[in-house]
Amino acid sequence: MSRAMEAKNQFEKGFSCAPAVLSAYSEQLGLEKALALKIACGFGGGIGRMGRTCGAITGVVMVIGLKRGQASLADEESRQETHKLARKFIDKFTALHGSIECRELIGYDLSDAGEHELAKESGVFQNKCPIFVYDAARILEDVLHLR
Q1: Which of 7, 14, 44, 92 could form a disulfide with 24 if both were Cys (CB 3.0 to 4.6 A apart)?
Q2: How large is the angle between the packed helices 33-40 and 17-26, nearest 10 degrees?
Q3: What is the pLDDT of residues 114-137, one digit of tens each?
Q4: In Å, how far are 97, 138, 141, 142 from 92, measured between CA atoms?
Q5: Helices 129-144 and 3-13, axial angle in degrees (round to 10)
Q6: Domain residue spans in the chain?
Q7: At 146, is the pLDDT very low, low, confident or very high (cuts 50, 70, 90)?
Q8: How far apart (Å, rounded) are the C-alpha atoms in residues 54 and 110?
Q9: What separation in angstroms does the CA of 57 have from each of 25, 40, 69, 115, 117?
Q10: How far is CA 19 from CA 63, 94, 118, 133, 139, in A?
């Protein structure tokens, strides 16, 4: 199974988008899966269910950081490369889906309890979000040359 499919499956099991993506790649990059799920937990639903940057996007950016991120002040090259890869990923995702903002992608403002209920009733979490998670992970693999 591809890691992109693993991320989608993690989401469909009930994990939010960010943990689903980060955990699909975490062990390959030296981070325990359970810890990855915890680290990314607050990013789901557009960061704390506020409908802002989609959790699949933030999950991918965390993976990019794990793979290429700066770990010492002397390593400015890694910081620049990480930013470049994050922008490249975001450009590709935006070209495909038109936005990286959760509320724009799903059409509901999850920070509003009533709209969150409407989103659940509409099936958006079963019909749209798995596509965003899968596509984000697939684009990540292309950007980082991961499999």
Answers
A1: 7
A2: 150
A3: 999 999 999 999 999 999 999 999
A4: 9, 11, 12, 10
A5: 150
A6: 3-144
A7: confident
A8: 11
A9: 14, 11, 16, 22, 23
A10: 11, 21, 23, 10, 17
